[in-house]
Design brief:
Layout (H helix, E strand, L loop, with lengths): L2 H11 L6 H19 L3 H18 L10 H20 L23 H18 L4 H11 L5 H8 L3 H32 L1
Length: 194
């Protein structure tokens, strides 16, 4: 969707909610990916994503177009705020990925069963690694890689300077690489011992 199309859909949706369907279809996968990563279950994610779009429709009159990424930043800010509220309500409840249906399905044309299992395992490993980062870096990493946002959009959502976002992103990725390498090394040592 081009910025011009997005602007036109926003304009139309203010008077005809049916036009919002195009915005929903465009942003749903990214919002869902971000929210699903940050909450406890698929059902919670579905509820929160529905709340995001409900709040967006209700608040569309107050939204002001500033530049091409402003609508994405506005939607993700709504999602971020709902996730913060969610975690306040579920404080102390650990994230869990025990059930297979709790792992988000990654888009792919007809994956083979072993590919599905490998993706689920990779997702679990990444979730565990990301959980070792500071809360701010976790948020920046998930917005960037699960939400598909750019640094300027993350900056607008979190109220941080764009350079600060870039620093968190860079250091977060470096931390993840170090921890991943250390885990692989530990696994190799264990396999050699056994």
């Amino acid at each position: 969707m081009t910025p011009e199309q997005e602007y036109e859909y926003i304009r139309q949706a203010r008077s005809d909610p049916r036009a919002f369907v195009y915005l929903y279809d465009h942003y749903f996968p990214r919002i869902h990916g971000y929210v699903r990563y940050r909450v406890h279950s698929q059902q919670d994610a579905q509820d929160l994503v529905a709340d995001v779009f409900f709040k967006a429709i209700r608040g569309l009159e107050r939204f002001r177009w500033r530049k091409e990424s402003s609508f994405a930043a506005w939607l993700f800010r709504i999602a971020h705020n709902l996730i913060v509220d969610y975690h306040r309500q579920h404080e102390g409840v650990p994230l869990s990925l025990d059930a297979d249906d709790d792992v988000p399905q990654l888009a792919s044309p007809a994956p083979l069963p072993e590919q599905v299992l490998a993706r689920r395992e990779t997702f679990r490993e990444m979730r565990d690694l990301i959980a070792t980062l500071s809360p701010r870096r976790q948020e920046v990493i998930t917005l960037r890689f699960y939400g598909g946002l750019h640094n300027n959009e993350i900056s607008a959502i979190l109220g941080l300077d764009e350079r600060t976002v870039a620093a968190h992103l860079c250091r977060g990725v470096q931390d993840l690489q170090r921890r991943y390498t250390a885990e692989r090394h530990a696994e190799a040592v264990m396999e050699a011992i056994v």
